[in-house]
Write a structure and sequence with these properties.
The chain has 452 residues and is α/β, with parallel strands linked by helices. It has a domain of 148 residues: Aspartate Aminotransferase, domain 1 (Alpha-Beta Complex). Helix content is 36%, strand content 12%. The chain is built from 16 helices and 12 strands. The chain has a 7-stranded mixed beta sheet with strand order 1-7-6-5-4-2-3, sandwiched between helices. Strands 8-9-12-11-10 form a 5-stranded mixed beta sheet. Helix 7 links the parallel strand 4 and strand 5. Helix 4 crosses helix 5. It is globular, with a radius of gyration of 23 Å.
Length: 452
């Protein structure tokens, strides 16, 4: 059982006016974070985070919709811009810098991931881009997993080299010696992985990779979009954890948002008025979006458990039918034991299942029947919705990769990625899947095996 470390009390920000009469050094906006967090249990950590009440005592926090903020004395603005006064003392400049509602959501995300600080952004890609630019600078080098979301792969292989000279070497992160050998002394700044890869569901050995990162003096950055609550990368050794909050954390397929969780020193540097990637590139989260997400966090753990439970049920039944299914919860998955050893208790093996129909044509036919004939799910990209979402990865979310890169990453032309939803009953949805599959005749040869 993970050790439970009690949290300490929060420092409540002092009121403006009284603070202006006091001397003090540079403020620390993360003083509102607990000095210690609940280790190993994201639900307990979130519950221990400060609850922000509404302006008039409401049980829900107020939405601070202002873009700019007033001061009571003219000299206060100078002190704010110099860093002498900050959000920890209830002084805010402009919502592209710090916004009270967004800052509160950021504290909640830091609690969930067990990091010292966090800040939330307008999208997952903006979070990834800002972190890489901040950590690498012009001409830096990244060692990255060869199994990444297509947009991240394009960012590393095309945009960042063109825009600021940041280069990437893609490696098989299962080969720890290859990872170690790819690090260029004095040039490599980041080791970048996805905890569970998109779309092939390969699992990163975060503890071992963090050992290499420390040995080589680089930062391990882990995208945990596929596994919130399931995995806690920072507790396993990652330096920075990134999320596309649009997915499981949001849960409603109605919000675009991202999050960066890591050391306060990193987040503060990214908000620096002169050299901060977040501050100066401006991927700002809207306060109304932050409020919406904050209201969904308390039931994230419940949703994740049901996503994962149904994914395991469907994957097990698919395999018994003789289908070629990829799911780390199955004992034939190469990373089954690894994920079991790293995951937080009670969350299973993730909410995504991949079904290899071999060809794109057969994948499209199956998805057509699943959506339009039996109403099992929806043909759409993204994940984490309460309905099952399906896409053929090679021609959609991984289309930025070349055919050779997709083959090397294990993405076949007929790979169907399913983000398993939780609407309806298990048996109702499974019956819909079976009926859709029955309309495909004959099955590919490799799927005509006896049930296992």
């Amino acid at each position: 059982m993970a050790e439970i470390v009690p949290t300490t009390a929060f420092v409540i920000g002092k009121k403006r006016g009284a603070e202006e009469e006091e001397d003090g050094g540079a403020g620390d906006q993360w003083a509102l974070l607990p000095k210690r967090t609940t280790v190993g249990d994201p639900v307990a950590a979130l519950a221990s985070a400060r609850h922000e009440f509404g302006e008039h005592g409401g049980v829900n926090m107020s939405i601070e919709a202002s873009a700019t903020f007033t001061v009571m004395e003219a000299d206060t603005m100078r002190r704010m811009f110099s860093g002498e006064l900050g959000p920890d003392r209830d002084f805010f400049i402009y919502s592209r810098h710090f916004n009270p509602t967004v800052l509160n959501l950021s504290r909640q995300m830091a609690a969930i991931e067990g990091t010292e600080a966090a800040y939330c952004t307008a999208s997952g890609m903006s979070a990834i881009s800002a972190v890489l630019i901040q950590l690498c600078g012009a001409g830096g080098h990244v060692v990255a997993s060869g199994r990444l979301y297509g947009g991240t792969h394009a960012l590393l292989s095309h945009f960042l080299p063109y825009a600021c000279g940041i280069r990437a070497t893609f490696v098989d992160i299962d080969d720890l010696e290859a990872v170690r050998a790819a690090v260029i002394e004095g040039e490599t700044k980041v080791l970048y992985v996805e905890t569970i890869s998109n779309p092939t569901l390969a699992v990163a050995n975060v503890p071992r990779l963090s050992e290499i990162a420390r040995e080589k003096g680089v930062k391990l950055v882990a995208d945990n979009t596929f596994a919130p609550m399931v995995l806690s990368p920072a507790r396993l050794g990652a330096d920075v954890v990134i999320h596309s909050v649009s997915k499981f954390i949001s849960g409603g397929a109605d919000i675009i948002a991202g999050a960066i969780c890591g050391p306060a020193s990193l987040v503060n540097s990214m908000m620096d008025l002169h050299k901060g990637a977040l501050m100066l590139m401006g991927p700002t989260m809207n306060a109304k979006v932050a409020f919406e997400i904050s209201e969904r966090l308390p039931h994230l753990s419940l949703r994740m458990k049901e996503h994962c439970n149904r994914a395991l049920v469907y994957a097990t039944r698919m395999r018994k039918m003789g289908l070629k299914v990829i799911y780390p919860g199955l004992d034939d998955h190469p990373h089954h034991s690894l994920l079991a050893s790293l995951s937080n208790p009670g969350y299973g093996f993730g909410g995504l299942v991949c079904l290899d129909m071999v060809t794109e044509e057969r994948a499209n036919k199956l998805m057509h029947h699943l959506q339009n004939t039996t109403q099992f799910g929806l043909m759409a990209v993204s994940l984490g919705y309460y309905e099952t979402l399906m896409s053929c990865s090679g021609s959609s979310t991984s289309s930025e990769m070349s055919p050779e890169e997709r083959a090397q990453a294990g993405i076949s032309p007929g790979l169907v990625r399913m983000s398993v939803g939780y609407s309806g009953t298990v048996e109702q949805r499974w019956s819909q899947f079976e009926r859709a599959l029955s309309l495909l005749h004959p099955l590919p040869k490799q799927q005509q095996q006896q049930p296992v």
